[in-house]
Design brief:
heterodimer; A: alpha+beta; 2 domains; 10-stranded mixed beta sheet; 12 helices; B: alpha/beta; 4-stranded antiparallel beta sheet; 7 helices; globular
């Protein structure tokens, strides 16, 4: 009989004995299910948050900030600079022939969350009328667009889902003034969908500001970026930094995720170690409970490889079962959930997506933990002196 | 008769805690082909150690062990496992059947190490169960069988691959007197009718009475034991 068939025979006999050891076997299943459930949930959340931010940016759009500013909220661009930036080479034109650039202001307003009634900040983005050309992904799904010069706002679907009093006709108080919601938009679940949009000039006027935070432009093509950037950064009258919008949001997502990633990795490692010791304990118990059987099979003539494989396959099967259970529970509980997390420009509302890649890598991690947990007990089983093990049973 | 098992100047010791305990000191033994040998002796006398060496479950510190013309003291543990599969059938005190398998599946286990087809294995299992009188219990699991029946299944398992040697470690140690007798009669039958060479360790003089030769092991040395001698 080949070594492979031997392994199959011993493994088959071993697996059939699992029902007699359900109690100890369930330790590994429950432990791994817990680890995979937590890892899938937490990484699913951080990846979805990151994706929502990254999806906000496009490679054929550029964002201009004051030189040295890390993000829009810490940047100020004076009105004098707007025309130079918008008319720089490489900027696309609207159908009306205007430069496709929008000088924008970011503010925030405290609103009441639907879930717990607590107040939380929501971002308000003041945009110019050209924004419709620059951001074609922003689509009105109800109501109408705000009118320039009026205190009107349109609200992103994510923000409306997360906060109360954001229906069409509702009023929002902003700096001693009352603004009316006139429309609802969606933009593919990106960060803008968590915000309110208003006319930039009206918003700046309400806040008594003369400077915007940023200028966003639509480029003629992705390749126009270098030309645009060079024109602005070599202009001695300007002191600005230029980034592709996608790179800007990528950087924002990395900043946002650094802490979460640290916490998740730490918790994941601790839990994986716990599961590893659980698997070790379970498999040592399994080997101990099967001392007689293993010694008998060895006495009859089965080789060590069959014994090792039987223990490893059991560990793998139990950890795989646990991983599937944990992943399924996490998927059922969290996939598609809408989550709101506060960041520097208000609350970012995004939909949690548990991807097949995340599920697959979590299950793979669990199987590795299971195999590592089974390795030492498997070696112990294989090295067990047959004569001693048989005597111990008598 | 020719010696099937030849043991020459075998030494074996174990380490217990910090002490090395000498179990066998220069032991010599020949077991003839077709012989039914009973090894008797008090606990710790070395009889089980000797049985393990004969069955290839352990290796001596020094000395030669030859079975059917092959030196087994020089084999690696992997080679010993293969050798055991071909040459030795084991019968244990507590039967050591696999609890999740039926009687016929338990008997089939040693055949899984051969190249026999499924049909051939089934035929051999049936013949072995017939021989021990348990054909009607083929589908029963060990927990559904009495002690005597379990030991008969274990004997069928030991026989099914037609080994050179049967090694029995206290085969009646867990059985009542009546059942012990039937098991011993079965072993005797296998020895006389099928010419099986049997080496049996026992404390029970009555069990030893079924053997064709009895040896007394004491402090690692061998001596002849008379019929009915106390262990």
């Amino acid at each position: 009989m080949s070594a492979l068939s031997q392994m199959g025979a011993v493994t088959g006999m071993n697996l059939r004995s699992i029902p007699r050891r359900l109690g100890s076997s369930s330790v590994i299943v429950i432990g791994i299910a817990g680890v995979v459930g937590v890892i899938v949930a937490v990484f699913g959340m951080t990846r979805s948050l990151s994706q929502a931010l990254v999806d906000t940016g496009r490679p054929d759009r550029a964002i201009v900030l004051r030189s040295g500013a890390q993000n829009e909220t810490s940047s100020t661009l004076l009105v004098d600079a707007f025309a130079t930036i918008k008319n720089a080479p490489g900027v696309a034109r609207t159908s009306a022939g205007d430069a496709a650039g929008s000088a924008e202001m970011l503010a925030s307003v405290n609103l009441i969350r639907r879930e717990d009634g607590a107040q939380a900040a929501v971002g308000v983005r003041g945009v110019e009328p050209t924004s419709a050309t620059i951001r074609p992904e922003v689509k009105l799904i109800d109501g109408r667009m705000f009118r320039p010069g009026l205190r009107e706002m349109i609200v992103g679907r994510g923000a409306q889902h997360e906060f109360k009093n954001l229906e069409i006709g509702d009023h929002v108080g902003l700096r001693d003034s009352v603004w009316t919601i006139v429309g609802i938009f969606e933009s593919g679940g990106d960060a803008n969908e968590s915000r309110l949009f208003a006319d930039a000039q009206t918003l700046m006027s309400a806040y008594k500001r003369t400077a915007a935070n940023s200028v966003t432009v639509l480029l003629e093509s992705e390749a126009s970026f270098d030309e645009f950037k060079t024109a602005l950064t070599t202009n001695p009258t300007l002191s600005v930094s230029v980034e592709r919008e996608r790179d800007y949001y990528q950087r924002q997502s990395e900043d946002a995720n650094t802490f979460f990633d640290l916490v998740t990795t730490f918790v994941g490692i601790i839990m994986a170690l716990g599961a590893l010791f659980g698997a070790l304990n379970t498999m040592y118990s399994a080997v101990s409970a099967r001392t007689v059987e293993i010694a008998t099979l060895r006495a009859i003539g089965f080789g060590a490889s069959g014994v090792v494989s039987s223990v490893l396959v059991e560990a793998l099967l139990l950890s795989f079962t646990g991983a599937v259970v944990g992943a399924a529970i996490a998927w059922l509980l969290f996939n598609g959930n809408t989550i709101g997390i506060g960041n520097n420009v208000g609350t970012l509302v995004f939909q949690m997506r548990i991807t097949p890649a995340l599920l697959g890598s979590s299950v793979l991690l669990a199987c590795i933990v299971g195999l590592l947990g089974g390795l030492l007990p498997a070696l112990r089983a294989a090295r067990m002196p047959v004569a001693t093990a048989l005597r111990a049973t008598a | 008769m020719t010696a099937l098992v030849s043991i020459k100047q075998v030494y074996k010791s174990y380490v217990r805690g910090k002490q090395r305990v000498e179990v066998l000191h220069g032991l010599d033994l020949d077991v003839e082909k077709g012989e039914f040998l009973a090894l008797m002796g008090p606990s710790g006398s070395g009889k089980s150690t000797l049985l393990n060496l004969i069955g290839g479950l352990d290796r001596p510190d020094k000395g030669e062990i030859t079975v059917a013309g092959q030196r087994i003291d020089q084999l690696s543990s992997g080679q010993l496992a293969k050798w055991r599969a071909r040459h030795v059938g084991f019968i244990f005190q507590f039967y050591n059947l696999l609890p999740v398998l039926t009687a016929e599946r338990n008997v089939e286990v040693p055949l899984l190490l051969t190249k026999l087809s499924s049909r051939e294995r089934k035929r051999n299992v049936q013949a072995a169960l017939d021989l021990v009188g348990l054909a009607d219990r083929a589908k029963h699991k060990p927990s559904e069988l009495s002690g005597g029946q379990q030991q008969r299944v274990a004997i069928a398992r030991a026989l099914v691959a037609d080994p050179t040697l049967l090694v029995c470690d206290e085969p009646t140690g867990d059985l009542d007197r009546e059942t012990s007798d039937s098991v011993l009669q079965l072993l005797e039958l296998l020895n006389r009718q099928q010419g099986k060479t049997i080496v049996m360790v026992t404390h029970d003089p009555r069990a030893a009475g079924h053997a064709s030769r009895r040896l007394h092991v004491d402090k690692g040395s061998l001596g002849e034991a008379p019929v009915g001698a106390a262990a």
